[in-house]
Write a structure and sequence with these properties.
The chain has helices at 2-26, 80-105, 141-151, and strands spanning 55-58, 61-64, 113-123, 129-137, 170-180. Strand 1 (55-58) and strand 2 (61-64) form a beta hairpin. By secondary structure, it is an alpha+beta fold.
Length: 181
């Protein structure tokens, strides 16, 4: 008997709540949807911009409309492996720089002071790292030779994928500072 009484009370209160909600909605107490559209800035569902190649003629005048170039930026959703490999590159440089610094400390060819080494490299379509140039400021042949040997053991990286979905070569520069005390 108590269960029946409980069920009757629950059904009565739910109908009262539904009636008060309907009265609030149609009575103007609740605001209706304003029709605003919220645009998501999530790059996981990236769609490249459309490119239109069209010419229009206006009363004998021939005008060319602007052609939208594809977005050359790198969306995050397409470059997860690129960023993961960049962490691998950073770890490669961070591990090997102290080794070269210790070699420079024990060598007479390197004078006391700070040396800035700029490594110019290219990440190919296959992920291979090719050294295009190594400069040392102030000039030191020993450090240039050491970094040339280091770059022969460079890890395989992944090239960046641009908005059109195709990977491209990437030219980059890495600066390293060696201090001999």
């Amino acid at each position: 008997m108590k269960i029946y009484f409980l069920l009757i009370c629950l059904s009565f209160t739910s109908s009262v709540i539904a009636q008060s909600l309907r009265d609030s909605l149609f009575g103007g107490k609740l605001k209706t949807d304003t029709g605003k559209t919220i645009v998501s800035k999530d790059t996981s569902k990236y769609t490249p911009p459309k490119v239109y190649n069209a010419t229009t003629a206006v009363q004998g005048d021939s005008r060319k409309t602007e052609i939208a170039k594809p977005d050359e930026s790198m969306p995050d959703s397409l470059n997860k492996t690129f960023y993961q490999k960049q962490k691998l590159w950073k770890r490669f440089i961070d591990v090997n720089t102290p080794i070269i610094s210790q070699q420079a400390d024990g060598n007479r060819k390197v004078k006391k002071g700070a040396y800035t080494i700029d490594i110019e490299y290219e990440i190919g379509l296959n992920g291979r790292v090719t050294t295009t140039g190594i400069t040392c400021n102030p000039p030191n042949d020993f450090l240039v030779e050491q970094f040339t040997e280091l770059m022969k053991r460079a890890p395989i990286l992944s090239p960046p994928v641009y908005a059109d979905g195709k990977p491209r070569k990437l030219n980059a520069t890495q600066s390293v500072t060696i201090v001999k005390k």
